[in-house]
Amino acid sequence: MKRESSTMDIASAPPDSGMLERLAAAVTRWSERWFPDAYLFAALAVIVSAAGALSTGVSVAKVGIAFGDGFWSLIPFTMQMAVVAISGYVVAVSPPAARLIDRLATLPRSGRSAVAYVALISIACSLFNWAISLVFSSLLVRAIARRADIRMDYRAGAAAAYLGMGATWALGLSSSAAQLQGNPASLPKALVDITGVIPFSDTIFLPQSMTIVAVLTVVSAVLAYFSAPRDARAVIAADLGVSLDDKAKAYERPQRPGDWLEHSPIVTVLIVALGIIWIGHEFTGKNPLLAISNLNTYNFVFLMLGMLLNWRPRRFLDAIARSVPSVAGVLIQFPLYGGIAYILTKAPGTDGQTLSHHLSSFFVAVSSRDSFPGVMGIYSAVLGFFVPSGGGKWIIEAPYVMQAANDLHVHLGWAVTVYNAAEALPNLINPFWMLPLLGVLGLRARDVVGYTFTQLMVHLPLVLLMLWLLARTLDYHPPVLP
C-alpha cells in the first residue's frame, strides 16, 4: 500500500505545476489504474491481430497454425535481448564501471535536469547502438536515483532512459532497414530489382534525416524536463519500493581448495584472451561502427568486458545471478510477439494475401506523391505497434513500400527514412522494448507510460509533419540497378 498511496498523492500535480507536468501526472494516474501488465498487453495484441486476420478471410485454423509456427520464431532474438540486459548489468555493477557511472551521475544539479540529462544521453547512445542506449541509460538512472542531494522522479527518469528507443534509434547506425539497403551482399534479389543499393548518404546521413534527429533531440529533452515533477513532488525509488543496492558483494577469500579457481583471475584472463582475438578479427575485417551494431558482437563484447571488469569468476557469477530477474518479462512475452508477426505476415486468406499485405495495399492505394510520407508514416507506426520488430520486418514490407515509392516518384532513401522514423514512435507506449529496461529498474510499464505517452503526443504530429515537409526538398532518382 505504501507504493500506491505515495505515487498517487505525488502524481496529483498541484495548480502551480506546468502544463506538461500536469499532463504527465494525469496520464500516469490513469495508467496506474488502467494500464495492464506488459504480459497482458502482449496477449491482447495477439487477440487483436487474430481478429484482424479473421476479418480478411483467414480461417481460424490458419490463424492458429500461424500463431504456433511463429511462437518460437524470436527465440534467437529473445536470447539476444536477455543477454543485452544481463551483460549490461554485469558490466555496470563491476567495481570499475560502477565508479564511472557513479561519476557521470554526479553531474546533474536537480531532479528535473537529471531527467533531461538522461534523455540526451539515451538519444545520443541510440544513434550508435540501440542496445547500448537501453542498458546504459537505465543503469545511469539507478545511479542518479541513489543520490541523496537531489530528488529525481524515478518514473520520469526511466521514461527518459527509454527515449532513444522511442525517438531516434531507427535514424542511427543500428537501423536495420538502412543497413540492409546499403549492403548489396544482404539484399534479396527481389528487392534489388526494385530499389538497387541505397547508400547511407541517402538514408541516415541525408541532411534531412539528420535534421529530424536534431529536432527530436531538442524537443525530447525539453519535454522530459518540463513533464518531470519538480523535486519536492518527485516520486523516488524508495517511494516505489525499488531497491537500489547494486554494489558487488564483498570479496571473500576461498574457504576450501575447491573454491580456489572461483576466486582466481586465471580462468578469466584465458577466456578473455580468446575473446579478444575474435573481437580483433571482427573489427579489423569490417567497419567498426557496423560491427558493434551487430547484436551478437555487442553482446559478446559486453560479456567479455563483464568478465574482465569483475575479474574473479565468483564475482562475475554473483553479478549474473542478480541480473536474471531483469529478463523475466522478455522470456515469456517475446514468444507472443513472434506469434503476432506470423499471424500478420504468414496467414493468407481466401485471396492468398496476408493481413500485412492488405494493410500495406490500403495505405499505398490512398497515397499520392505528396501524401506518401504522411500516409506511409502512419502505416509504419500502426504496424510497428503490433509487430515491434526493431526494423527486421523491413525485408517483408520493403517490396510493397518501395514499389509504391517508385510508382509515385518518391525519393527512395527518404522512403526508408519515413519508414524508420515512424516505426520508432509506437515504442513509446508499447512494452515490447521496455522489458529489459523495466527489469533493470524494477518498474512496470504502467509506471513510465504516462511520461512516454506525453512524448508521443508531441512526437507523432511533429515527425509526420517533418516527413512531409522535408520530402518536398528531395527529388526522385530512379534506382541504379546492377
Protein model, in words:
This protein is an all-alpha fold. The protein has helices at 2-11, 19-34, 38-55, 60-71, 75-92, 95-104, 111-126, 130-145, 154-161, 163-168, 176-182, 189-195, 207-227, 266-284, 288-293, 295-310, 313-323, 328-346, 355-365, 372-386, 394-407, 412-424, 434-441, 445-471. 49% of the residues are buried.
* Share of β-strand residues: under 5%
Task: Give the CA-CA distance, first to last residue.
Answer: 65 Å
Per DSSP, the total helix count is 24
Gross morphology is: globular
Q: How confident overall, as mean pLDDT?
A: 85
**What portion of residues is helical?**
55-70%
Low-confidence residue ranges: 1-11
* SSE pattern, N- to C-terminal: HHHHHHHHHHHHHHHHHHHHHHHH
Tell me the structural class: mainly alpha
- The total strand number stands at 0
Q: Rounded to an integer, what's the Rg over CA atoms?
A: 23 Å
Q: What is the makeup of the main sheet?
A: none
Keywords:
482 residues; mainly alpha; 24 helices; globular
List the helices and strands and how they pair.
Blueprint: H1 2-11, H2 19-34, H3 38-55, H4 60-71, H5 75-92, H6 95-104, H7 111-126, H8 130-145, H9 154-161, H10 163-168, H11 176-182, H12 189-195, H13 207-227, H14 266-284, H15 288-293, H16 295-310, H17 313-323, H18 328-346, H19 355-365, H20 372-386, H21 394-407, H22 412-424, H23 434-441, H24 445-471
Helix pairs in contact: 2-24, 3-4, 3-18, 4-18, 5-8, 5-16, 5-17, 5-18, 5-23, 6-8, 7-8, 7-9, 7-13, 8-9, 8-23, 9-13, 9-24, 12-21, 13-24, 14-16, 19-20, 19-21, 20-22, 20-24, 22-24
